[in-house]
């Protein structure tokens, strides 16, 4: 099967490509290698993928319409996993246009490419951030998500709506996965686990937002990767009764799905920090700060639907996951404590 993975040099994209290649798929990975964070980390991830015979990398921007049209025109991709996006809640307050370019314009190019070139299933990254300050726990895909707290969250919600229109109009099977705080080896330098580890190793204080009162459904990257690939395999069938001209009455019959993908076991931020301290054998100096604009207080995924449909089973405890991240970090950055 020929699969297109966008954001292939990114944290989750790298893990997804690796697992697909391990099982013998032919993967084309694309990424614009932007400098939102350390480009050498993206290059290092890619250097792990390039030795696989089934892997081809093309450096390109999903927002580049003509390049995307050309890439898709071969009609070779059976399935597409769209992970390329401008990620990060806080950065969306500083550079809103990056989110429109990659997450809206880029996503439109992905939808168009799939529509015109016989793609059988598009799986794309959404985010737990769409739940905003939802207080009903756990978060269910049936909850109202009309109140995003950042442009990042709004762009992810917009992706779900855009995907629905393409599923409805063109009978294109699409599945959105709302990822809940993903962490693990090769993780993003702008995210808490990396920032905390880095600061503790370098004897710097860590910034503890919301005075440490967050609860987060931290999800280990291998569990996410497994869930993405199970979802990709489980293609929503095009609807045989589909008529692009007939609007669905109230509920949708389009081959469109949205799932939560998380650990379904939220952890207090202070316990997360304690697990990092335990692994590093050091105590962090903590600077307590208020909730940041755009941040959501708590997250907790209801994953029953994904369990039912694709047998998704998150297995990694935060203690085990952090242990594996710290082992990777020490080896990659040659740290001896
Ligand atoms: P990442 O930043 O490591 O990966 C994204 C990759 O996409 C990067 O390598 C980047 O260079 C590339 N990219 C960005 N814009 C591009 C463009 N216009 N064209 C081509 N490539 C582009 O982030 P990640 O953590 O791997 O996230 C992957 C996806 O999952 C993103 O859509 C993100 O919004 C979503 N997500 C991640 C998390 C998480 O906790 N990591 C949570 C919710 C949602």
Automatic annotation (TrEMBL):
CDD domains: UDP_GE_SDE_e
Transmembrane stretches, start-end: none
Domain of life per record: Bacteria
Domain NAD-dependent epimerase/dehydratase: 3-237
One Pfam family, short name: Epimerase
GO molecular function terms attached to this record: isomerase activity
InterPro entries found in the cross-reference section: Epimerase_deHydtase (IPR001509), NAD(P)-bd_dom_sf (IPR036291)
Presence of keyword Isomerase: yes
Keywords assigned: Isomerase, NAD
Name the record gives this protein: NAD-dependent epimerase/dehydratase domain-containing protein
Gene source species: Chlorobium ferrooxidans DSM 13031
Lineage of origin: Bacteria, Pseudomonadati, Chlorobiota, Chlorobiia, Chlorobiales
């Amino acid at each position: 099967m020929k699969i297109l993975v966008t954001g292939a040099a990114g944290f989750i994209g790298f893990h997804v490509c690796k697992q697909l290649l391990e099982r013998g798929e032919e993967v084309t990975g694309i990424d614009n290698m932007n400098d939102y964070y350390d480009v050498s980390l993206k290059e290092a991830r890619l250097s792990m993928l390039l030795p696989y015979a089934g892997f081809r990398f093309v450096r390109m921007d999903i927002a580049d319409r003509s390049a995307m049209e050309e890439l898709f025109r071969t009609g070779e991709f059976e399935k597409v996993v769209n992970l390329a996006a401008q990620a990060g809640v806080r950065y969306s307050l500083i550079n809103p246009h990056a989110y429109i370019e990659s997450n809206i314009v880029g996503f439109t190019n992905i939808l168009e490419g799939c529509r015109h070139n016989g793609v059988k299933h598009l799986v794309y990254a959404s985010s737990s951030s769409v739940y905003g300050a939802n207080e009903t726990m756990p978060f269910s895909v049936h909850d109202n998500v009309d109140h995003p707290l950042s442009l990042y969250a709004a762009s992810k919600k917009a992706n779900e709506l855009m995907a629905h229109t393409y599923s409805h109009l063109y009978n294109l099977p699409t599945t959105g996965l709302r990822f809940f705080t993903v962490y693990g080896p090769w993780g993003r330098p702008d995210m808490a686990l990396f920032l905390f580890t880095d600061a503790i190793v370098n004897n710097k204080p860590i910034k503890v937002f919301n005075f440490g009162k967050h609860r987060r459904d931290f999800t280990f990257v291998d569990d996410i990767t497994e869930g993405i690939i199970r979802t990709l395999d489980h293609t929503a069938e095009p609807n045989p009764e589909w008529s692009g001209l007939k609007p669905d009455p109230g509920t949708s019959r389009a081959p469109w799905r949205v799932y939560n993908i998380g650990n379904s076991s939220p952890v207090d931020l202070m316990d997360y920090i304690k697990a990092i301290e335990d692994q590093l054998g050091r105590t962090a100096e903590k600077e307590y700060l208020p909730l940041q604009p755009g941040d959501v207080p708590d997250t907790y995924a209801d994953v029953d639907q994904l369990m039912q449909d694709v047998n998704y089973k998150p297995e990694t405890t935060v203690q085990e996951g952090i242990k594996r991240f710290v082992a990777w970090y020490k080896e990659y950055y040659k740290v001896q404590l």
